[in-house]
Amino acid sequence: MTSFEQRRQEFGERLRRFRDEAGMTGRELASALGWPHSKISKLENGKQTAEDSDVRQWLDAIGASESSVEQMLEELSDLRISKAAWRAQLRAGHRARQQQSFESEHAATRIRNAEFGVVPGLLQTADYARAVFRTQAELLQVPDSDIEASVRVRMQRQQVLYQGKDIEIIVSQHALRHPVAPPDAMLGQLDRLVSAVDIPGLRFGVLPEFRRLPNITMNGFIMLDDVVQVEHVSAELTIDDPEQVAIYRRLMDRLWQVACEGDEARAILQRLAAEYRHQTEG
């Protein structure tokens, strides 16, 4: 369980205690609010993140004080979109965070991933991943002593590609033209991406340069069923609000409308490989 999930469960437990102290059952509260009982259950069990209006209506219905309302809304503002500072997560190195991704991805039934500045982790080679971990450790000033262990876990994460799950991955050509790894490592990475075109069950695409995008794409993201994770330079956002998750679903659908797949994607990757090969030979 991630720290975000634990905090959401704790928040749900607080909502449950407010209801219990008011002497109401879950069904009575649902009836008073005009909600389905399943919503009460999901909020109390930490399966869904509440909106401000949900908390206010909940607490108003049980007669909670205004100070309690304000306190719960303040807690919710920190929870709804959980900002987990990378520096705090990576204080002991990258391996634990990679293990967390391993568990989340293997538990998911559907994975949708789009990256615009880096090769997606599920398709990275060991050399490329090693370069990513080193640059991040330097920027965030966190330990780099577990890089090799982190690389091993990242490689283990890729087992999920061969487990029959519904997986979609899009990478921007921009990420391949502005590499974090040296040319020889990029050659190996591009070869890996070429092979990804033919992985059974994997939908893989490349966003070609100079092609008009359907929407502004500020950050890469990965969708694990009904949860979205968005990486920023110094923080990671975890989003599970249904309306916001739906936005990412629409964005992914629109990106597929302009992405190259199959032979088109392979041709782009092979042209890029030729450029990096020229660099290594020059």
TrEMBL record:
Cited Gene3D superfamilies: lambda repressor-like DNA-binding domains (1.10.260.40)
SMART domains with a match to the protein in the record: HTH_XRE
Any one Pfam family match given in the protein's UniProt record, by short name: DUF5753
Highest taxon above the source species: Bacteria
SUPFAM superfamilies xref list: lambda repressor-like DNA-binding domains
Matching InterPro entries: Cro/C1-type_HTH, DUF5753, Lambda_DNA-bd_dom_sf
UniProt GO MF annotations: DNA binding
CDD domains per the UniProt record, alphabetical: HTH_XRE
The name this protein goes by in its record: Helix-turn-helix protein
